[in-house]
């Protein structure tokens, strides 16, 4: 393993969870390829591991006994830290939250060479206490701001305040809107509203929907309505735990938001972060970071709320992987938006056509970074099997070259979409990065 560098350590858990007991017990989540590749080299000692795949239950891997996730129900969430060994860590965080209020953190980051993410991590190391902030009462430039940053979601202790401080320091000309919903901790509301230019609060829906999607729809719409009502022409829709890094957002959006002048009434393009999107799931375009004209983003988030219950969603590991479309909030929102524009939404081919005509990538200029996604360790290099695994991630998420192919050679993209949707890949194949 001389060709791999591993930086960081268990101390990073305190960046995500200030005040956590350094001696907290560790439980791993995931017993697949990532666990096999990395766990022996990190120097961690976990009490046991959990994994949702039944074939791993009862196995002992690298001295760790693998159990069913229901084993966590026997634990006190205050005394356990779950360490996630999986590429699809965001989905696992949602699964863990459904079990109980556990603290969880990624084991390793394989994208640590991304300079903007490393910049944000460096900021966290230096400013985990207070961080820079605009002096209260500082006058704004006259006139309407060029763009708004809508930070949408719950108000997290520690995370939201730090992210707001960062975004104000990096984007002082933006109108910062914190958009959340009723029932947040009053002390946190007061703390964070003093940092925002505007606070938007939505009522909690009686039916939250799968993965709380209806509360997300409401608060996203509310924040974008606030920008629209102020006459702010462009918006970035981010999350309440995200640091935004990169160049001037305003100049980026003015340049790429409109489609050609022959269609002055729209639709205009919506900027999407491709690095957290899923290339082979129809309309699964990340909502972690979005940008464009405020009116277009408002139209996107003015979709009807999803009245289905959790019992309406079934997707076993052996199911065809495109059934994941029904589980993601992003697929639901973008599909409704496309349908509202009169575009077809049947399959992956229709999704590719939508990307070609209505989407542009933000990745090269703006990046989101969240304490929710911070890892105990950053990994650089690695043996061939690690490099092959990391290369597989490129097939999961689209990139700029893939988007350009849509623009210049769409028939080739159509062929790719038809081949993939006609394949026999399963949900488990998708999560283990085997879809090609």
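Q: What amino acid sequence fits the structure above?
A:
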């Amino acid at each position: 393993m001389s060709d791999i560098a591993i930086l960081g350590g268990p101390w990073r858990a305190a960046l995500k969870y200030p005040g956590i007991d350094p001696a907290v017990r560790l439980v791993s989540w995931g017993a697949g390829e990532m666990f096999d590749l990395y766990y022996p080299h990190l120097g961690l000692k976990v009490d046991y591991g959990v994994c949702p795949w039944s074939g791993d239950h009862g196995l002992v891997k690298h001295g760790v006994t693998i159990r069913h996730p229901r084993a966590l129900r026997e634990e006190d969430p205050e005394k356990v830290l779950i360490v996630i060994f999986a590429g699809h860590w965001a989905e696992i965080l949602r699964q863990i939250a459904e079990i109980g209020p556990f603290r969880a953190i990624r084991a390793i980051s394989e994208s640590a060479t991304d300079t903007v993410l490393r910049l944000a991590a460096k900021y966290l190391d230096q400013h985990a206490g207070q961080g820079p902030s605009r002096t209260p009462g500082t006058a704004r430039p006259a006139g309407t701001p060029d763009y708004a940053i809508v930070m949408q979601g719950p108000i997290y202790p520690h995370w939201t305040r730090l992210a707001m401080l960062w975004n104000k320091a990096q984007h002082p000309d933006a109108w910062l809107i914190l958009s959340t919903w009723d029932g947040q901790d009053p002390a946190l509301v007061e703390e964070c509203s003093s940092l925002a230019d505007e606070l938007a609060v939505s009522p909690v829906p009686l039916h939250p929907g799968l993965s709380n999607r209806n509360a997300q729809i409401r608060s996203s719409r509310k924040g974008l309505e606030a920008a629209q009502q102020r006459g702010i022409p462009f918006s970035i829709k981010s999350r309440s735990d995200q640091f935004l890094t990169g160049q001037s957002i305003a100049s980026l959006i003015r340049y790429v938001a409109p489609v050609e002048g022959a269609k002055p009434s729209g639709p205009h393009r919506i900027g999407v972060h491709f690095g957290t999107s899923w290339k082979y799931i129809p309309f699964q375009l990340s909502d972690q970071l979005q940008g464009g004209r405020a009116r277009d983003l408002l139209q996107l988030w003015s979709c009807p709320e999803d009245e289905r219950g959790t019992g309406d969603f079934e997707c076993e590991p052996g199911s065809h992987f495109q059934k994941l479309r029904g589980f993601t909030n992003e697929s639901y929102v973008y599909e409704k938006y496309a349908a509202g524009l009169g575009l077809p939404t049947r399959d992956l081919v229709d999704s590719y056509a939508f990307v070609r005509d209505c989407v542009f990538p933000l990745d090269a200029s703006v990046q989101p970074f969240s304490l929710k996604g911070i890892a105990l360790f950053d990994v650089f290099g690695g043996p061939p099997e690690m490099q092959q695994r990391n290369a597989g991630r490129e097939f999961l998420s689209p990139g700029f070259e893939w988007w350009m192919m849509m623009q210049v050679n769409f028939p080739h993209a159509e062929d790719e979409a038809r081949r993939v949707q006609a394949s026999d890949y399963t949900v488990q194949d998708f999560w283990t990065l085997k879809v090609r």
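Q: And what stands out in the fold?
A: The chain has two domains: 4-109, 116-132+147-371.
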